[in-house]
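Input record (one chain):
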Amino acid sequence: MALLDKGFDLKMNDRDLRVTTTEYRKFSSVSGWPPFDFYLQVKAVVRDTPDGKYQIALTPKIKEQNRINASAFTEHSLIIYSDKEQKEDYAVHSGRGKAMLEGQLLFLSIVQTIANVLGLPAEQFKQTLQQTEVFGM
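The corresponding structure, as predicted from the sequence alone:
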């Protein structure tokens, strides 16, 4: 329900597997040549833990789509900027970097909403990063 409240449509919701995946939702556009639209998709998986509790894994995915050629797109993990990068890095404040920051803020608001629904502090969610090298940014 938290994903629906944030404006996402469900692509798949399997109660037996305890997996939910959203459709891509547009969150930003970048003009320039060529112009791009940015979309966010969230996958949520609920697992049992050995101590009888549950674990929720949220995985954000970004789709960058060329507005002139819709078949020209890339999909990748959400880029998460550190506090230092948000304050000091020029690339974060313009174009594609700014769009990634908007995606990061949207995803963090989803995490906060889910934490609120569960009655947990958002700090209880821990961030697991997968190291990804991005070239050409």
